[in-house]
Amino acid sequence: MLALAVGLMTIALAVVMRFPLWATMLASSLAMLAVSGSLPLFLKAVEGVGRLEYLCLYLAACSISVLVSLYRESGAIDKLSRGLLGVIRQPKLITALVPSVLGALSIPGGALMSAPIVDKMGGELGFNKAQRLFLNIWYRHVIFLVYPLSPTILVASALAGTSVWSIALRTLPSFCAMVLMGYLLVLRGGKRGVEVEACGDLKELMSVSSPLLLAVTLALMFQLYMSQLPRYLAVAAGASAGVLALLILKE
Q1: For the whole prediction, is pTM greater than 0.85?
Q2: What is the separation, in whole angstroms, between the first and last Cα of the chain?
Q3: According to DSSP H, which parts of 1-109 are helical?
Q4: Residue ranges of the chain with pLDDT lower than 70?
Q5: What is the pLDDT of residue 36?
Q6: Among 17, 55, 108, 228, which residue is least crowded by beta carbons within 10 Å?
Q7: Whole-number pLDDT of residue 173
């Protein structure tokens, strides 16, 4: 409790002194570490930042961020949504799948991007606003349990000292249970026989999703057949290939 109080006081003082946000959070964290007696442990952790494994983790995170940014800036996100709507044509499946796909891309504000689609489909299915909000948030975050390029799994694998694929497989039952839970709690109660107006096609969907699929596939192949590579270098290589593919498609 003392560490928390000191941290809050540090934040308040930094705000009064108009410190930048990053400096405020850093000062608060260091103050809490010092008061709680955990500063030596933190300094020991910092010493390991330069290890090859962590450098590869940073490279993987940066590569994924570039891929995500390109999807957003190039307008590929909109094409991906249109392609899903045009190909699937099942309102309930679209309502669950679109937030998951955008969640896989870890786009800041991604829940807002999928909200119009979920709102439209959910409205036609007869869901109220609270139910539509639930579906959008629930299915956006469920994918984090198994998607191997998600920051959540990358960090967890680094802390646990195991591969991202091992964690994804271990969390697969939880993922399936949560998908089913979302269906039973809300999605099952939607109207039947609702039709979706086509606004995309399979060709567009395959084209715009190919960089993402390439990134995941290559990351898996590198890790399976080139195990001598550092663990996260395989993920970085896959994401980089996805970036290159998206740049080629953009041209």
Answers
A1: no
A2: 56
A3: 2-16, 21-36, 39-47, 52-73, 76-88, 91-104
A4: 1, 38-39, 41-50, 81, 85, 105-113, 193-201, 223-224, 227-229, 231, 251
A5: 76
A6: 228
A7: 92
Task: For residue 93, give every residue at least 6 positions away whose Cβ sits within 8 Å of its Cβ, in sequence order, or none.
Answer: none
Q: Which of 226, 231, 241 is nearest to 58 (CA)?
A: 231
Rounded CA-CA distance 246/244 in Å is 5
User: Which pairs count as long-range contacts for 161-169, CB under 8 Å and 24+ apart, including other chains?
Assistant: 163/223, 163/231, 164/223, 164/231, 164/235, 165/220, 165/223
Residue-level pLDDT at 181: 92
Side chain identity at residue 88, one-letter code: I
Identify the pLDDT of residue 43.
66
pLDDT of res. 105: 64
Distance CA 133, CA 123 (A): 11
Q: How far apart are CA 209 and CA 122, in angstroms?
A: 24
Contact, 85 vs 200, CB < 8 A? yes
Q: Taking a C-beta distance cutoff of 8 angstroms, is the pair 53, 157 a contact? A: no
3 state DSSP class of 190: coil
Closest by Cα among 142, 166, 168, 141 to 227: 166
